[in-house]
Give the backbone structure.
Amino acid sequence: MNNDSNGAVRIALDAMGGDHAPKIVVNGAAIAQIRYPACQFTFYGDEAQITPLLAKHKDLAARSSIVHTSERVLADDKVAHALRNGRNSSMRLAINSVHEGKAEAVVSAGNTGALMAMAKFVLKTMPGIDRPAICAFFPTLKGETVMLDLGANVECTPENLVDFAVMGAIFANTVLGVHQPRIGLLNVGSEEIKGRDDVRVAAQELRALELPGEFIGYVEGDDITKGLVDVVVTDGFTGNVALKTAEGTAKMYSSFLKSTFKSSWLARIGYLFAQAAFKKLRKRTDPRTYNGALFVGLKGVCVKSHGGADEIGFANAIGVAYDLVKYKFNDQISARVQLIHEKVLALPAEVKVPAPEPIAAA
Amino acid sequence: MNNDSNGAVRIALDAMGGDHAPKIVVNGAAIAQIRYPACQFTFYGDEAQITPLLAKHKDLAARSSIVHTSERVLADDKVAHALRNGRNSSMRLAINSVHEGKAEAVVSAGNTGALMAMAKFVLKTMPGIDRPAICAFFPTLKGETVMLDLGANVECTPENLVDFAVMGAIFANTVLGVHQPRIGLLNVGSEEIKGRDDVRVAAQELRALELPGEFIGYVEGDDITKGLVDVVVTDGFTGNVALKTAEGTAKMYSSFLKSTFKSSWLARIGYLFAQAAFKKLRKRTDPRTYNGALFVGLKGVCVKSHGGADEIGFANAIGVAYDLVKYKFNDQISARVQLIHEKVLALPAEVKVPAPEPIAAA
């Protein structure tokens, strides 16, 4: 989980995962090599394809190695199929190398479900963590927010949500450098519904615990982009829907914007004047900036890049893995989770289930 | 549920609900009166405030009446408090008038939770419907999509979801004029998680039923704004989070856009050229267009306007109520739900619980 004695951070790359593999994997690693000179990469995949790509980046080639395999997990492979038949795939071998201590982290742009299942099977969950979660960034008006779970668990217990809050806060601290992250629990705010039982119980527990951050209570969907909190905690069903709904809405606005600038000659001229400013806006809302989701809660750092990422996006995903190793993310979680679990078990029983507001009589 | 013998559609208005009541309620009714001359309005609220506002709209005044009450439900009243103490409130009296057959529909911009609870208590749910749902529009790349439940029920059974699909399809048909609405069930699409049991069972049932539309299967969060379907069905927790996340994302982009046009003199000049085009864009994404959420599944038409709506938005909410009455929305639902329930009960047991994909061995 730590960098090796020479200060090198060894990262295993699934060279065959993603829509544009292995090209963007090698080129992304070349960018990351410049940004993080301490990185040492091992490419898992088809040597015949990787070697010529690597030849174009001498510095990278000098510090990298290739482990050849002709097998790969396809984007549309079923999880069970990938687990059964993918034992010699580039994805699986890259994950194995973390388990075997040959690398500190693995990065893949491949099939999310297969990566999650393989990582969970090979690396196992950390002591004290019941379920791993998918954790990533969400752009906000103020910067970035960490959100989890984004799809690993469709249903969660209050204890899962508490674990997610702890891991999310340490993630925000490690990767975003937020000193005392503010943590919010995603809920519905309308008066008629006070939220599901699991969410309410989790809130009670979070209020009673000493967290690596400040629990500020419930947040609603529209609070996420306001940047009210640094960490948004929710179950994987809600988190996945919220993330994808936001992505869809952003794409819709981007499409509206394009067609607006093309809708008349005056608008086209307007764009010529404003294009420098819009270039900055595109940079600010660039999904590549937010690339790199972590499977938190596993005994090993496993980062998922978006399947459609380009080399810039893939380099950012490597950057996330690098930060997590460098700042000993998993060690921090282990220590904290142990403390939390002791305290949750020590809570008096009556704290655990708050009574719902009565809604019957009129 | 029907318009009266003279063809008039009588609509009860909670004149005191919303941030800008009673002004926008009266002015919104004046706009609606021109659009829908068959409407007859009764304003429930403070006569001393309503009379001078109404005096400015002679045609409206001639066809409207006022029922005075000095009481009102406040925006931050707790649901239980409003139910207990709001029996003479403008909201409650307006709802009562629908129950008593004095009006065909009620429209309020007041406290959502109180309105839902009061409407449910006074009007009751329709035979065959277990739970009412909040149903509204979502803007998409292709136009508008109907989505429900947006917050009435934090947890739903598969049967609730089936009812929502039926009611949503009839809503899309009635209000949007879609002949054979395409219905999608909101789910998470990643391979590792096939969705929650309730969603999977609902999908099986929907496939087996003869619906007032076409069930196309699962949709993900980013499919909503693509306009892949006319009706998106989900539980109230997920629906509320998705709607608010989309609202938050839209506001963030709108804020980014404003600051981009203000970020340099060139950009400001660009805006001058493009402003006519952007005026059209604002109109297309105007939330007022999508104002008017219906509490579907109640014995009576109860439409909720956004609390911050202006007169245009409120007139649109009245328009939704008018369409629902005119096209006998509730009668259509009654007939269809009866059929559906008979068929669901007749389904063979083995259809009901599909086995999840195994994910254990590797």
Chain B is about 50% helix and 15% strand. The first strand of chain B starts at residue 9 and ends at 14. Chain B touches chain A through 85 residues (CB under 8 Å).
